[in-house]
From TrEMBL:
SUPFAM superfamilies: alpha/beta-Hydrolases. Pfam families: Abhydrolase_1. InterPro entries: AB_hydrolase_1, AB_hydrolase_fold, AB_hydrolase_sf. Keywords: Hydrolase. Residues 54-294 form the AB hydrolase-1 domain. One of its GO terms (cellular component) is membrane. GO terms for molecular function: hydrolase activity. This is Alpha/beta hydrolase.
Length: 315
């Protein structure tokens, strides 16, 4: 079931920056709809939808949601039916103590495809959204997938004590203790505290900003105006997320054309190259430091990303 976004929110929303080719108001995204469906454990999940053509499904990262994708929805809707799924405890979806596990989120993706009667789609995951897609493929295979796009996600966040340095680099692992990771990560996200690089070896939050990125400022503004966060629920899923190693899925189950997107600022960029070189039909696209080559690159440069994504999907 879907309704127009304006009817759903009962108002229009104006964004702070007026940018050529991008929406300045929510109403600028013609045909934007908000849909919902119930999972088999009784949770109501929402999704954003616009456009026509082959389905293109975005699975956002941890703490992200469809509002942050407003620019990409606008840019891609004339060529694709664009969907962005708000996962458990994210965006417009139910806030619940149920199912804060990647396996549940992967099941949600499966049920979403069923709810929308999507027989085949391009799947594009960002950050934790990649893990959700990897979990989906692990459980259900890739028969309903046309092409994969993975944006800057480590194959394993946790580094096992018996791994070689090569294994650590290939997986992108940057945490030695999941409990410490959660403590440091939540402090950085909720309180803006600096990350202790001896505990969590990443500078990801240094780039969680809108400096010289007005398009990202717009999408974050929309998210802040319409989507509420529940930090406690987000921390629960982050714990489970950090415990998974997806190497076996990358090695054996990703069997469709795959674009892996990362940047020179990423702490796990070498793992992204490893994914692209490991899957049968992989390609790596690495943004430079001068072009927002960080974890948020697709939201900071939506026009560049949408153009390059389209080239890959249409090839």
């Amino acid at each position: 079931m879907t309704i127009s976004a304006l009817d759903f929110f009962k108002r229009d929303v104006t964004l702070p920056n007026k940018l050529d080719g991008l929406p300045h108001k929510l109403s600028d995204v013609e045909g934007l709809q908000i849909g919902s469906f119930k999972t088999n454990d009784g949770v109501s999940l929402n999704y954003w939808k616009a456009g026509s053509g082959k389905p293109l499904v975005f699975v956002p990262g941890w703490s992200s949601n469809g509002a942050e994708y407003i620019n990409l929805i606008h840019l891609l809707k004339d060529k694709y039916t664009v969907y962005v799924l708000d996962q458990h405890n994210h965006g417009l979806s139910d806030k619940t103590k149920l199912g804060n596990r990647i396996s549940r989120y992967s099941m949600d993706l499966h049920e979403f495809l069923n709810a929308e009667n999507i027989e085949k789609a391009h799947l594009c995951g960002w950050s934790m959204g990649c893990s959700v897609i990897w979990g989906y493929v692990d459980l259900f295979g890739s028969n309903r997938v046309e092409k994969f796009v993975f944006i800057d996600e480590a194959v394993s966040i946790y580094c096992h004590s018996d791994w070689t340095e090569e294994q650590r680099v290939n997986t992108g692992a940057f945490v030695r203790s999941v409990e410490s990771h959660i403590s440091v990560f939540s402090g950085a996200f909720a309180g803006g505290k600096p990350i202790n690089r001896m505990v969590v070896n990443t500078d990801i939050f240094d780039f969680y900003n809108t400096i010289n990125a007005p398009a990202y400022e717009n999408s974050l503004s929309l998210s802040e105006q319409v989507a509420q966060q529940d930090i406690n629920a987000l921390i629960q899923i982050q714990f489970d997320h950090a415990c998974n190693d997806w190497s076996d899925v990358i090695l054996h189950k990703i069997d469709k054309p795959t674009l892996v997107v990362s940047g020179e600022h990423s702490n796990w960029v070498e793992s992204q190259r490893w994914i692209a070189n490991t899957v049968p039909q992989g390609k790596a696209l690495i943004y430079g430091k001068h072009e927002h080559g960080d974890h948020f690159l697709h939201l900071k440069l939506p026009q560049k990303f949408a153009s390059e994504l389209t080239v890959f999907l249409e090839k």
